[in-house]
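Per reviewer request, we include the raw input and output of the structure prediction for the construct analysed in the revised manuscript.
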Amino acid sequence: MAGRHETLPRVTDSTHPPFHDEPHGDSLGNRLNWLRAAVLGANDGIVSTAGIVVGVAGATDSRATLLTAGLAGLLAGSMSMAAGEYVSVSTQRDSEKAALALERRELREQPQEELEELTELLAARGLSEKVAREAAEQLTRRDALRAHANVELGIDPDALTNPWHAAGASFLAFTVGALLPLLAMVLSPPSLRLLVTVVSVLAALALTGWWSARLGAASVGPALLRNMGGGALAMGVTYAAGALLKAAGV
């Protein structure tokens, strides 16, 4: 945003250690957004494809059938994830652009009112009235639209969300996640297919749970339980359904 605080010089003498690099603001928000998309896509790929191949394994031992079902699930799921992210992020981008257009018009037609509004917003963040006024005037002189976009709307005009990036990331994450249970099921010996797939899936879910917790600075235990518990439940339900269909002669 225009008017960002000037970068403070790092003090390197022994009595004043350098500032620690703690993520703040947009960098943390962007990281968490990408983390959410990557973890969601990978987990969906792992769990949904595992559910399909384990369910089919409960009904048949045919490798060709397992491969067909798993590959169909992988392609359908990855395309669905990509399309969903594209639509969702496109809607968000359209909303951001509309908000910026409205702000641009208001700045053109009501500059004084917008200056007062920016002053009030800065004062609401803890600045004194005098300092808030001075800051608002400086920010407005440098780039009024950027100042209002950041302070009022929480938008960086130069970093609007990109639907193609989100779609591609979701497609890739889902595909990578889905390949694990598919390959585990079709490449393992028939007598070990189910065991190898279940163990591989639970291990992968534990890894994604740990990864998401670490990058999100959250507790690892609950993330592991959520991921592994959900995956185990999905595989148990679909396997039971496949076994019942097999027993019924379907």
